[in-house]
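Below: protein 1.
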Amino acid sequence: MQSPRFLFAGVTVILEQINRVPPCPDPGTADDIAQQVSIYVINLDRSRDRWERLCKQAVEFDLHLTRIPAVDGRVIADADRVDFHPPSFMYHNGRKLLPGEYGCYRSHLIALEQFVASGDRVAIIIEDDVELNERLIPRAIAAMDGAKGARLVKLVNHRLVGFKPIHKTSENDVVGRCMHGPQGSAACYIVNRKAAKKLLTTLKPMLLPYDVALERGWSTGVETFTTFENLVDFSPHRADTTIGKRVHYRAVKRHPLLRLTAHWFRTCDQVHRWYYAIAMKR
C-alpha cells in the first residue's frame, strides 16, 4: 500500500499540470470580433474633412481604419487610363465615361489589391461618405457566416426592388438578392479573400460603372448578396458627390438610336439577374 505522502505528491503534480493549461479566450467578445475584419476607406486627398470625420467615429466605436488614397479621375488623361476600352464602355452604357467613374473603379481595385496583399480573410470596404457605427462589424460578419467559397455582401444600397430573402443572420439582418436592378452604390460591402481575388480578374477591363459591375455575381463568379436594411447611413457628404451629378450624366449620353446596344445589354442583364435571384439556394 502506497504511503499518504506519496499520494499527496502525486496530487500536487496533477494540479501543477492543470494550472499550466492556458485559459481559452471567449471568441464572442466584442474585441475579438473587431479583430477579425479590417475596414478600408477610399478617400481622395482633397477630401480631408471626410477622412477626419470617419477617424473621429472610429475612435468613438473602437474601430481600426486603413486609408486607401483614392484615384482622382479628373487628373488622368484619357490615354493613360488602364484596363479601359472606350468603345466597349460606350456599347454597354450608351454614353461616355465620366472621369469620376474611372477614379472610383481604380480606387476600389486598389483597395481589393491591398486587402489581398494583407493576408486578412475578410475586409469591409467603404467610401468616405458613410457613417460608421458600433454594430457594423458584428452585423457584417454575421452576414458572411457560412460562406465556403468566394462571397460578397453589399451592406448599403440606394434601392431594393423585388428583394428575395435567403436567410436571417444571428444579428437579425435579412440577407438575399434583388430581382431588379441595378441597386446602386458600392459605398459599403464585406468581401472575403477568394472573392477579392476573383474580382481583381473578372472586373477587368472596365465595362460598367463599379457599383453596377460589383453586384453582377453571375458575371464575376462571386456569390453576391445584399442585406435588406442598410447597415450604415450616408453622411451629409453624400450630396456633394465626387463622381458626377445628373447633369453630368446627361451631357455624355449618346443619341437615343445609338443607345440601342445599351438597351439590349440591360435587357439581357435583367434576365440574368432574375435567374440569379430565383435560383439561389438557402
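Below: protein 2.
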Amino acid sequence: MSTIAVLGAGKIGEALLSGLLHGGRAPTDLLFTERHPERSVELTKRYGVRAVDVPTAAKQADVLVVAVKPQDIEPLLDELAPAITNDTLVVSLCAGLPTALYDRRLPDGVPVVRVMPNTPMVVGEAMSAISAGRHATPAHLSTVEELLSVVGQVVRVPESQQDAVTALSGSGPAYFFYLVEAMIDAGILLGLPRAVAEKLIIQSAVGAAAMLAETGEHPVTLREAVTSPAGTTIMAIRELERHGVRAALLAAIEAARDRSEELGKAHEE
C-alpha cells in the first residue's frame, strides 16, 4: 500500500486525506483528484498532497479510494476503466453503490471493497464498515482495515447489510448533531447564554459517549442510573415518549436505509 489516491476530494475525501496525514502517512504517498481547479490548489496548499487526473491516479496508485457523490460515479468509471489494471485495489466510499456496479464497468478481475465511513474520520473517530466484492480477497480486506484504522474503527459486514449501515452510522453523526442543536436551543429557551448551553451539551455528549464505550453497560442501564423516581429526568423522558421521539428515530433510519437502496438501484442495468 505504497501510494493511495483519493478520487474526489469533497468532504469525505478531504476527511480521509486529513486523517491519513494525521495518522502518519507522508504527503508523497498520497494523491487526489478534484474536478474544480481552485479546490485542487486549496487542498494542495493545505496538505501538501499532489492533485492529478484520474488516469494518472490509476497508473501511479496501488489503492484507489472512490469518494465521489453517487450521481458522479458514471463519468468517473468511464475515465477509470481504460487505465486501471487488476493489480489496483478499488475502495468505494460511495453511499448506496454496490460492488456489482464496479464489476460491470471495470475490467474483469479488479478487486473492489465497499466501505461506509462517516465524517468523524476527520478527527480520527470514524466508524467504517467494509464488505468484499466478488474479486476481493481476505488480504484486500486486511489492507482496507489497515488503511482505515488510522482514522477510526472498522468492522466487516456482508454487503447485503451495507444499506442498513449507511442509515445507521453513515448518516448517524447528523442525527447526533441534530439532537445537540435542539438541546442547545432548549438551553437558550431556558435562559442560558448560547456559549454556556453549547459547553454544557457538547461535554455531556462527549461524556455520555465515553461511558457507553468504556463501561460496556447497556444504554438502558446507564439511562436508568440518571433517572430518579419522580425526578427531573423521568419527566423529560415522559415527554420524549409522548412526542414519539423513539418512533421518529426508527422511521428516520428506515427512510435513510430506503434511500440508500434507491441509490444502488439507480445504477442497476
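The radius of gyration is 21 Å.
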